[in-house]
Design goal:
Shape: elongated
Distance between the termini: 8 Å
Largest sheet: 6 strands, parallel
CATH superfamily of the largest domain: HAD superfamily/HAD-like
Number of domains: 2
Strand order of the largest sheet: 3-2-1-4-5-6
CATH architecture of the largest domain: 3-Layer(aba) Sandwich
Helix content: 40-55%
Number of helices: 10
Length: 231
């Protein structure tokens, strides 16, 4: 049956985001701005994702301060301000560059009266910058783990998105790159899931937390492949 709504992941789906090496470079820049030991800070950033993405460490300045303290560094107020500005600029750059096909696809979905939602695991930078992005207009519902205080695959995120769209699970599809066990999470509440394959020639370079490694459903190579499934 034709579907009436699409739930999208954000990083690795509507935008490419950073690859593994780019993320390490950005973290190194951040550590040096804070004056924190780079290697220890890098490791902590990799292991604290759930805390950062569910607001357990607070907003950006507080998060940076608490991470520094964990690696034995007491940052100055000036360093926290500078690092916070740097981190927002890093995210502003990546969020401002959707995949080439994303704006036209979203416009097509809007014109076809297909309802669109985004569910993203993200720290505070993403919801803070989201209202300023110039390509997100057709997206009607945007849920962020930091704001919701829960990560995918928590079923409440999917159910809240469906309620906001005014649709049932069988009326929607979920499209994501497979991080955070998001595909099996969508299926657990009755939503059909599609995995978009990100840089298939360089799979090891793709930055992804908690991949849905055992999921074996349908894969697509471009976002436009969802269009034939829709009304």
């Amino acid at each position: 049956m034709p579907y009436r709504g699409v739930l999208f992941d954000l990083y690795g789906t509507l935008i490419d985001g950073w690859d593994v090496e780019q993320a390490r470079v950005r973290t190194t820049e951040l550590a040096r701005t804070l004056g924190a030991p780079v290697d220890a800070f890098q490791q902590l950033m990799e292991t604290s994702y759930t805390e950062r993405a569910t607001a357990a460490l607070g907003p950006l300045p507080e998060m940076l301060t608490r991470l520094c303290l964990r690696v034995g560094h007491q940052p100055s107020a000036a360093a926290i301000r500078a690092a916070s500005e740097l981190r927002l600029e890093q995210f502003r750059e990546v969020l401002g560059q959707p995949r080439q096909e994303t704006p036209s696809l979203l416009a097509t979905l809007r014109d076809r009266e297909v309802r669109v939602a985004v569910i993203s695991d993200s720290s505070s930078e993403t919801p803070e910058l989201w209202p300023s992005l110039n390509w997100t207009g057709p997206i009607q519902i945007a849920l962020f783990s930091w704001t919701e205080r829960r990560r995918k695959p928590d079923g409440e995120l999917y159910r809240k998105a469906l309620a906001g769209m005014g649709l049932g699970p069988s009326e929607c599809i979920y499209v994501g790159d497979g991080g955070s066990h998001e595909l099996s999470g969508a299926e657990s509440v009755g939503i059909r899931a599609l995995r978009i394959v990100h840089h298939p020639g360089r799979p090891d370079s793709h930055l992804q937390y908690d991949p849905d490694a055992k999921w074996g459903g349908q894969e697509i190579g471009t976002l436009s492949e969802v269009l034939p499934l829709l009304r």
